[in-house]
Design goal:
Elements lengths: L2 H5 L5 H28 L6 H25 L8 E3 L2 E3 L2 H35 L4 H26 L13 H7 L3 H21 L2 H4 L6 H11 L2 H19 L8 H24 L4 H18 L1 H7 L2 H8 L5 H4 L1 H9 L1
Antiparallel strand pairs: 1-2
Length: 334
């Protein structure tokens, strides 16, 4: 009868612990690569970098909340259901606490990731005034969006803090209309992601670059579609489980689904945020691998390698941000 019981029951606690642990390691690797990439190019840190550094702290915090909740059983657990309605239990009480902590923290994390990407776009494409104006408008929109939903979540039960982890029946009737608030939040999260990811694409196709490189850069930016996909999945799960409680009475199972997709979205978003900057690190790693392979089979490679492949191996301008004339302008702007 219940949707989540048939199609989306998540109870693999060990798997979720491994996933969250890997996300922590990946985030540390990604932010370290971003910092190292700046040093490789001898570029000073910009607003986008500082925002990314602060954002990764909040993302790691979300991973910590997810890990703790999973270890304690608040995530992957199940509510006690009597007459198709969850009955208050210590586990549900604990799940409510983790829900409040996670949903409060995620508002800042998502906002900082979006702002970091916008400041990166602004830094990369600085000579185009109309694009700069669009960036500033979106920066204002995202900042207001982040602050509004953060405080709306903080004070969703006014200043009655204990109500935030009260029994679900009490919470739904005594606090603000959190169902509608979260619906608006998830919808606007998707819309802002679509706008931010699409913003630089028309500019890329106006640059004087080979078509293959334009396609490659567009594909790099379009990695943000994975974030959008996770956001859509989260919104779908939320709508199905929250607005049809008669068929979805297991609050903890529903909470697990929702927080799982939030966890995936925020971690993928952080990776996408840093990918355009990490291109020099990827290029350096590629060159090191090629150099080592070449030293072992130098005679064989010397026979087969032509002029075109030599140029490929020495070309480090994989991104207009790091390689063409516009990069000098970007460095000057900081």
């Amino acid at each position: 009868m219940a949707y989540h019981r048939k199609l989306a029951l998540v109870d693999n606690r060990t798997g979720l612990i491994v996933m969250a642990s890997l996300f922590c390691l990946i985030q540390l690797l990604v932010i370290t690569s971003r910092i190292y990439a700046r040093r490789l190019r001898r570029m000073r840190y910009g607003t986008d970098d500082w925002l990314a550094i602060v954002a990764v702290i909040f993302v790691l915090g979300l991973n910590g909340i997810f890990l703790a909740g999973t270890v304690q059983g608040a995530i992957t657990g199940h509510s006690q259901v009597v007459d198709d309605w969850p009955v208050t239990s210590p586990l549900e009480h604990l799940a409510q606490k983790y829900k409040y902590g996670f949903q409060t923290t995620e508002k800042i994390a998502f906002g900082l990731i979006k702002l970091s990407i916008l400041f990166l776009w602004k830094r990369m494409i600085s000579p185009i005034r109309s694009f700069q104006v669009c960036c500033w408008i979106m920066i204002g929109v995202v900042t207001a969006w982040m602050i509004a939903f953060f405080f709306a979540t903080i004070f969703q039960c006014y200043t009655q803090w204990a109500w935030n982890w009260a029994p679900i029946s009490f919470f739904l009737t005594q606090c603000t209309n959190t169902l509608n608030m979260l619906t608006v939040f998830t919808a606007t999260d998707i819309v802002t992601d679509v706008v931010i990811i699409a913003m630089p694409v028309p500019i890329i196709w106006q640059l004087h670059l080979p078509t293959a490189k334009k396609v490659g850069l567009t594909g790099l930016f379009m990695m943000g579609l994975f974030t959008i996909g996770a956001g859509i999945a989260r919104m779908y799960i939320y709508l199905v489980t929250s607005y049809d409680k008669e068929d979805n009475p297991d609050f903890i199972a529903d909470f697990t689904l929702f927080i799982l997709w939030s966890e995936i979205e925020v971690n993928v978003g952080m990776i996408v945020c840093c990918m355009p900057v990490c291109a020099p690190v990827v290029g350096k790693f590629r060159d090191c691998v090629v150099s080592r392979l070449g030293s072992k089979t130098s005679s064989h490679l010397a026979h087969r390698r032509g002029k075109g492949s030599k140029e490929y191996l020495t070309d480090r301008s994989d991104n207009p941000y790091f390689g063409d004339k516009s990069s000098s302008q970007s460095r000057a702007d900081g």
